[in-house]
Design a protein that fits this description.
TIM Barrel, about 35% helix, two-stranded parallel ribbon, binds iron/sulfur cluster, 11 strands
Length: about 325
């Protein structure tokens, strides 16, 4: 493998592309390189075997093939100078994916001590051990969906994919024993309710699994299209889940304290003044996941930010309150 895919923002920080960025990424977003489609068939994914979307897309981000040696040596410089604090590697399922992944990790590790996150589907314990021995710092096994039914529809058997909820949960459990802490990705907006998402995040957190939130983004040519909803409902749901996740992770409230009406959260389980101060602090609405992962413009447009790559400013916080349906 002589190439690697890198997000445009990453290439900008590495000085390999000239692009203007409001907020640069603090993590290098990479994907192992292949020109083949993935053997899995996740309905939202541009790279899925039945998708006709452009292979360079992951959600809204463009991941461009680039010379591996150039990326790895610039990565060392960017880490040493404090421009990047982490490298995140996304995998895909094709014949030589494992060897390409190991090669990429080794190349990065031979050059730099930058923390590495690896996002991968469940593998054998032996392979988890190999990943650990290569000094990967954080392992992430993306569930993407919030319920077994949605998982099956979106990336399981019903979607013509090789995965199942049970084997992903088993992979998360096995990885937790080997790595102690594990991450997952949860996509919000696939048809789950507030309660589905919050219950899952709380259960995972209790088991030392950190759920990073993504908003579902339609990529033309992919197979999953959800019935259109008003933007106000999409963003209210996203903000509610972000806020609840933050309360759970910060131990300010827990799922059993929260109340739901028609599956929408109506009580976050803490005093209103405390809730307001959490909202005004703004961190609840920043990108979640591995340390130093800010993913600018991964799911966002200029008119709708889901994950703030840095602390929201006062105007943005006022908007967040409106999006949550609060009177201001
Ligand atoms: S949370 Fe961020 S750094 Fe971690 S695997 Fe996901 S995208 Fe990569």
């Amino acid at each position: 493998m002589k190439k690697v895919r890198a997000s445009m923002g990453t290439l900008g920080v590495l000085g390999l592309e000239m692009i203007q960025m409001d907020t640069p990424p603090t993590t290098a977003y990479l994907q192992i390189y292949t020109e083949k489609r993935c053997n899995a068939n996740c309905q939202f994914c541009a790279q899925a075997k039945s998708s006709s979307a452009d292979l360079t897309h992951i959600a809204r981000g463009m991941y461009v093939p680039y010379d591996l040696g150039a990326v790895v040596s610039r990565l060392k410089m960017a880490y040493d100078r404090g421009y990047l604090a982490r490298a995140c590697i996304q995998t895909a399922l094709y014949d030589s994916w494992w060897w390409d992944t190991v090669h990429l990790i080794k190349m990065i590790r031979e050059n730099s001590q930058i923390p590495i996150s690896l996002s991968v589907f469940p593998v054998s314990n032996e392979r988890f051990e190999v990943i650990r021995s290569l000094n990967v710092n954080d392992i992430v096994i993306p569930l993407d969906a919030c319920t077994p039914e949605l998982f099956n529809k979106i990336k399981g058997k019903s979607a013509g994919g090789p995965y199942s909820w049970e084997s992903h949960m088993d992979g998360i459990k096995r990885a937790s024993r080997i790595f102690q802490k594990v991450g997952t990705h949860v996509m919000i907006g696939l048809g789950e309710t507030d309660e589905d998402a919050i219950r899952l995040i709380s259960e995972l957190w209790k088991n030392n699994v950190n759920a990073a939130l993504f908003s579902y983004t339609y990529v033309p040519g992919t197979q999953f299209e959800i019935a259109e909803k008003p933007q106000s409902e999409i963003i209210r749901h996203y903000r509610a889940v972000q806020l609840a996740r933050h309360l759970i992770v910060e131990k300010l409230a827990d799922y059993p304290d929260m109340r739901f009406e028609n599956n929408n959260i109506c009580d976050f389980g803490i005093d209103e003044n405390v809730l307001l101060s959490v909202i005004e602090d703004g961190r609840a609405f920043q990108t979640s996941g591995c340390p130093d992962c800010n993913r600018p413009m991964a799911n966002e447009t200029f008119s709708q930010i889901f994950n703030f790559p840095k602390k929201p400013d006062d105007e943005e916080k006022e908007n967040i309150k409106r999006e949550l349906g609060m009177e201001i």
